Amino acid sequence: MKKLILTFGMAMALFVGNAQSQLGIVTVEKNDKQVPVDFWYVINSKDNKDQMFYYNETQLTKQYLKNMLADYGQSLENPFGKDEDGDNYWIITHPSRNIVYLYLSEEKGTGYAMIISITKD
Fold first, then answer.
1. Domain boundaries, the chain
2. DSSP result, the chain
3. CA distances (Å), origin 101, targets 48, 87, 117
4. pTM (2 decimals)?
5. Which of 14, 26, 80, 108 could make an SS bond with 41 (beta carbons 3.0 to 4.6 A apart)?
6. CB neighbours of residue 54 within 10 Å
7. Amino acid 1: pLDDT
8. Are 76 and 69 in contact, with CB atoms under 8 Å apart?
9. Does the CA dihedral 7-21-104-33 come out positive or negative?
10. What is the predicted pLDDT for the residue at 6?
11. Which pLDDT score is estimated for 22?
12. Considering only CA atoms, which of 44, 102, 46 is closest in space to residue 70?
């Protein structure tokens, strides 16, 4: 439990410099049909360990991610690569030595996108 709290704390520290601020992280249940919009959230499931999500309109999500990446000298236009689903991703090494993988996943035809943050030791 301490490791999980530390991991989420480190991941949230990654995002401190952004214009938007949020107190805490919303937890949703695995079977919930709706997710919070414009909030970082976690899914209460073993399958989603060390993962956080941010969901909003595509343009707002991209701007949010652009601001996050700028804090670490990276650019939205220059991803590290693409995953097997074709989603762009970036890798950030936090000063705490944690590595954060940020994925941008756009939901085709909905006008919404998601940032997926996966923290690794």
1. 2-120
2. -HHHHHHHHHHHHHTTTSS---SS-EEEETT-S---SSSEEEEESGGGTTEEEEEEEHHHHHHHHHHHHHTTT--TTS-SEE-TTS-EEEEEE-TTS-EEEEEEEEETTTTEEEEEEEEE-
3. 14, 12, 6
4. 0.76
5. 26
6. 25
7. 44
8. yes
9. positive
10. 42
11. 58
12. 102
What is the distance between the alpha carbons of residues 24 and 42, in angstroms, rounded to a whole number?
11
Residue with tokens 């999980």: 4
User: In the chain, what is the greatest distance between 2 CA atoms, to the nearest angstrom?
Assistant: 40
35 vs 42, 43, 46, CA distance in Å? Answer: 10, 9, 18
At 105, the pLDDT band (50, 70, 90 cuts) reads very high
Q: Is 109's pLDDT higher than 80?
A: yes
Alpha carbon distance 102, 52 (integer Å): 10
pLDDT tens digits for range 15-71: 444 445 556 788 888 888 888 899 999 998 888 888 999 999 999 999 999 999 999
- Which residue in this structure is represented by tokens 């949230």? 12
DSSP state of 65: H
